[in-house]
Structures are given as C-alpha cells and as structure tokens.
C-alpha cells in the first residue's frame, strides 16, 4: 500500500513538472517568435504582450510555487498588483518570472 502512495506522489510530481515545462515552452515560443513577413514583403513586428497574457503566465508560475517571488517582482516595479504595472514593463516582468527557479535568478 505504501508503494502505491509513493507511486501516486511520483506520478503527480511528473505531471506538475510536465505542466511547468509546457508553460515555459509556450511562453518562450510566444516571446521569441520570429517576425512574420506580410503579403507586401514587410516584416510584421510581434505584438506587445497584453495584460491577460501576462496574467496567465504569472498565474501559472504562482501555481508552480513561485507566488511570493512573483509578488516581489511586481513590487520591484513599484506596483501593488499586476494591474498597476506599466505595460512597457510586461516583457521584462515575464522574462524575470520565467527565470524563477532556473538558476538565472539565484535560485536552484
């Protein structure tokens, strides 16, 4: 019986890790997608992140156990909540949030 409980915990940890990897991959793909060429041959710039997109990325990281870190990053921008963050700061904020736990932020 104990082995089954242990296996259930391992399976749940694997699922959590998989969700984190998918979230990171989706965010990176969105952030670093190459500009697309339009029908006229002009390059189309990647659209800026929206509040909803940033909120979703931050929510996922909070669910992964980084809620306190996310709040600290928001506070570092002089805001009490995401709604108060300047849209010009969305991309740097997302990059900082995505770096949490990767060693790029001092955690490991």
Set down the secondary structure blueprint.
Layout: H1 2-31, E1 36-37, E2 43-44, H2 51-76, H3 90-99
Antiparallel strand pairs: 1-2
Written description of the protein model:
The structure is a single chain. The protein is mainly α. It has one domain (2-99). Helices cover 61% and strands 4% of the residues. The protein has a two-stranded antiparallel sheet. Helix 1 crosses helix 2 (51-76) and helix 2 (51-76) crosses helix 3. It is flat, with a radius of gyration of 17 Å.
Q: Which band does the percent of strand residues land in?
A: under 5%
In round numbers, the mean pLDDT is 81
What overall geometry do the principal axes of the alpha carbons give? flat
Find the count of extended strands (DSSP E, 2+ residues): 2
- Considering DSSP H and I runs of 4 or more, what fraction of the residues is helical? 55-70%
Largest sheet: 2 strands, antiparallel
Biggest sheet: strand arrangement:
1-2
Class by alpha and beta content = mainly alpha
Terminal CA distance: 33 Å
User: How many alpha or pi helices?
Assistant: 3
Radius of gyration: 17 Å
| Count of spatially separate domains | 1
Query: Could you name the ranges where pLDDT drops below 50 across 5 or more consecutive residues?
Result: none
Task: Provide a short characterization of the protein structure.
The chain is mainly alpha-helical.
Descriptive terms for the model:
108 residues; single chain; two-stranded antiparallel ribbon; mainly alpha
